[in-house]
Design brief:
heterodimer, A: MetI-like fold, about 75% helix, disordered N terminus, B: alpha+beta, six-stranded mixed beta sheet, 21 strands, about 30% helix
């Protein structure tokens, strides 16, 4: 027990404490704006059923493609549904999709990374597999998987998660490989801890910070990929509102009713940009080399 | 900086020149734009409408169809007689016709054409259109006897279709698989010059042509020296190309682009007198819920087809209440079509009556099961929009529609299964009998009779219509069959699509033909504006 405590104490400085992180973040105005924007969007998305002024599925062809007005603040879409409502629900779906996928992706990626660092004989085959997967552009990989697994939320999450996993696996392995050199790993082994306990208590905890930061960077990319699949028609089936498919649905009418595609694309752009800015800021903050 | 500026200006200039070079077209040439190419230009081996478009210009049929799509007119045959028992058709051929290679057209070509097509060893398509053929013989150089095993009332109408285009049998025998790919020798107003798959097909004027059908304004030779059919796969690009003058004519312009093109003063929108293509939603009556006719009628009444015609087709389609157009031959005007209107209140009442009740605004339930149906559709833009509209309309009466859209490569396979309740489709047809022969005989289950309509009376009437030897008997049989299938509410008819030909300023106004897949027909009326 006491040995374990020591090990954790040794590990501690690697994890930057939360209040310190937030204080440092406040000094980066761009990241702060991104954070506020994301919080607003996430809250709006979560509360969509309460905030939305209309029913997201109530079609009315006679009201279609209306420009923004007093009644419909952002106009109506190709089915005459309120755009603001569709965007709120769309953001909800897209964010949920991105979040679920990144969770799946980080679980798969971290498992592969840690396993290949811990069991050296697995390293070759596992990391070569990751290299093969990385050699495909993620959009191609995602497309192939989505087409193979069919449409639906579950298969989409799996497709997106699997496309996000390879780079996470690589980061996890690199971090884990350096943790493996630490003395507390040897100490843990000497006192007879099982492999499972070693991985869980020492390896995972000490790798967590960089992986989490990397995942926050990947989050934006996953959202973008989800939107791209939706745009290409491999996303969720109608009438589900999803930002990528809203952008696609308005594309034919870009001259007639530019608000449909523009609003959805702009929202995707802002969310992904915010995620990237925030991810960059986190990386800078947690990178010891960049700390003065 | 100065040199860079100059270079940039130079680049702009050459770009502008290149654009004008594209715009300034060859004199005496018409450029037709379309989105897809055919697999080959052999009338007996292709079912693609893209093949028909070109084949009607380079080849001809014995019998032709007037612009009303009902009246038969002479083509390569100047007249024909039919025996009283409806088994022997005797065609008297024109004597002034020659092929593009100057070879005279005789009865041998007709016999060779038919022999090649109906030969069981030949991988031809749509052979059923020829009827049950006993033999096709040349009585002399200009008389052909077409003998059937049983009467076939649709034969002369089917003979106006592109599959019946008379080929040069000697060329087909020499070229084999390359026939309709490397070359095609026909009797049409244009000659097949070259084909670059998925890029363009070039046709040149048949200089000796003088025998155009009576319903064309010009009887030959063609007004333009050359027709170039170009492929522009993206609809939006195609619409833009018409505006910039890169192309002269197209009938593949999507409805949403028409309103934009209409605002361009130099662009003309031309419409044929008649044309038959209907969009519908089919219902599989063997599925648990749809076995109840009240539910089918409720679904039909809940869908507002006039909103679809106005909004999704921008008015370039008319809402319909029958499976095929009222203008189609053998349409029965006495059928009751009340079940195909739009009346959501009546739809709700019917569902209540059938035991499907809802609490509040939610999905209706019966015996603990919710009224949830599976809908298969296409991913194409207008189909997708229609699917969403139908889903929205049904939601308003308490029916939950699970829409599954598939792209063209897999949708046909999916539609062969028994796993869906509703599906969407659009189809071209010649007449009421043609439509019924395709969709409603029990022998056509599971596809295209995806409704699983298995009714001996319908089968018997369609068969009687096919075998009828008089127009009256044919009408009587098809009209009764029509009444039966409409009464059963197997489809929700949506709209009759109106074909629109878009022509640029270089083209003189002309009247398109409504025949399936070939609004320019033989191209005789295609003329450059002076």
């Amino acid at each position: 027990m006491s040995t374990e405590m020591t090990a954790l104490e040794t590990a501690k400085p690697a994890i930057v404490s939360r209040p310190y992180l937030l204080r440092r973040l406040a000094r980066d105005p761009l990241a702060l704006v991104a954070l506020i924007f994301l919080v607003v969007i996430v809250v709006a998305a979560v509360l969509a059923p309460m905030l939305a002024p209309f029913d997201p599925y109530d079609t009315n062809l006679r009201m279609r493609l209306r420009p923004p007005s007093g009644q419909h603040l952002l106009g109506t879409d190709t089915q005459g549904r309120d755009m603001l409502t569709r965007l709120l629900y769309g953001a909800r779906t897209t964010l949920a999709l991105g979040f679920a996928s990144i969770v799946v992706g980080s679980l798969i990626g971290t498992s592969i990374g840690l396993a290949s660092a811990f069991y050296r004989r697995l390293e070759g085959p596992l990391m070569r597999l990751v290299d093969i997967l990385l050699s495909f552009p993620s959009i191609l990989f995602g497309l192939a998987l989505a087409a193979m697994l069919g449409v639906g939320m579950d298969s989409l999450v799996i497709a997106l998660g699997l496309s996000a996993a390879p780079p996470i696996a690589r980061v996890a392995r690199a971090t884990a490989a350096s943790v493996m050199q630490a003395e507390y790993m040897d100490a843990g082994r000497v006192i007879g801890l099982s492999d499972g306990a070693l991985i869980r208590r020492y390896l995972l905890r000490n790798c967590a910070a960089p992986i989490v930061v990397y995942c926050s960077l990947q989050f934006g990319e996953t959202i973008l990929l989800a939107a791209a699949l939706g745009f290409l028609g491999l996303g969720l089936q109608p009438p589900t509102a999803e930002l990528g498919s809203i952008a696609a649905e308005g594309r034919s009418f870009i001259f007639l009713a530019p608000h449909v595609s523009t609003a959805a694309s702009l929202l995707i752009f802002m969310i992904v940009l915010s995620c990237n800015l925030l991810g960059d800021a986190f990386r800078d903050l947690t990178d010891p080399k960049l700390q003065r | 900086m100065g040199t860079v500026g100059k270079r940039a200006a130079g680049c702009m200039l050459s770009l502008a020149l290149a654009t004008t070079a594209v715009m300034a077209q060859e004199p005496d040439t018409a450029v037709v734009l379309r989105v897809s190419d055919a697999d080959r230009y052999d009338p007996q081996r292709s079912t693609a409408l893209a093949a028909a478009e070109i084949l009607y210009m380079v080849g001809e049929t014995l019998v032709t169809l007037d612009r009303d799509l009902k009246t038969l007119r002479p083509g390569l045959a100047e007249r024909w007689d039919v025996s009283a028992d409806g088994l022997i058709y005797t065609f008297h051929l024109r004597r002034d016709v020659s092929f593009c290679d100057a070879k005279p057209f005789t009865a041998k070509a007709v016999v060779g054409t038919m022999d090649r097509w109906i030969n069981p060893d030949f991988p031809g398509v749509s052979k059923w259109k020829a009827g049950k053929v006993e033999s096709v013989k040349a009585l002399d150089d200009y008389t052909v006897e077409y003998r059937l095993k049983e009467p076939y009332s649709e034969l002369l109408y089917q003979m106006t279709q592109f599959n019946f285009i008379i080929i040069d049998p000697a060329q087909a025998a020499t070229l084999k698989d390359d026939f309709g790919v490397a070359a095609f020798n026909g009797t049409g107003p244009f000659c097949f010059q070259s084909w670059t798959p998925r890029t363009q097909t070039v046709l040149t004027r048949h200089e000796n042509y003088r025998w155009g059908p009576s319903f064309m304004a010009n009887s030959g030779p063609a007004e333009v020296a050359k027709v170039v059919w170009k492929i522009v796969p993206e609809e939006a690009t195609l619409a833009a190309a018409l505006q910039t003058g890169e192309g002269d004519v197209s009938f593949a312009v999507p409805s949403w682009a028409l309103s934009q093109l209409q605002a361009t003063p130099s662009i003309q929108l031309l419409r044929p007198e008649a044309g038959f293509r209907t969009h519908y939603v089919g219902m599989k009556i063997t599925r648990p819920v749809l076995g109840d006719k009240r539910v089918r009628e409720a679904i039909s009444l809940a869908i507002d087809q006039s909103a679809i015609a106005e909004a999704i087709f921008f008015g370039e389609a008319e809402a319909t209440k029958s499976y095929y157009s009222e203008a189609a031959r053998d349409f029965n005007p006495k059928m009751k079509l009340d079940a195909f209107g739009y009346d959501p209140e009546r739809a709700k009442a019917l569902l209540d009556e059938a035991g499907w009740v809802s609490k509040g605004d939610g999905v209706r339930m019966k015996d603990g099961k919710s009224l949830s149906l599976i809908f298969y559709g296409f991913t194409d833009e207008s189909f997708k929009q229609m699917a969403e509209t139908i889903q929205g309309d049904l939601r308003k009466v308490g029916v939950d529609l699970k829409v599954e859209l598939y792209d063209p490569t897999i949708v046909w396979g999916k539609l062969k299964t028994q796993d869906f309740d509703l599906y969407q489709m659009s189809y071209p047809y010649l007449s009421a009998g043609d439509a019924m022969n395709l969709y409603f005989p029990s022998s056509n289950m599971p596809t295209p009779n995806r409704m699983n309509w298995n009714d001996p009376k319908t089968d018997q009437l369609i068969d009687a219509g096919n075998r009828a030897v008089s127009a009256e008997a044919r009408f009587a049989a098809f009209a009764e069959a029509g009444a039966i299938i409409h009464d059963a509410v197997l489809w929700k008819p949506l709209v009759n699509e109106k074909l629109v030909v878009v022509a640029g300023p270089r083209i003189a106004p002309f009247k398109p033909h409504g025949i399936s897949g070939a609004p320019l027909y033989d191209g005789l009326d295609l003329k450059l504006a002076k």
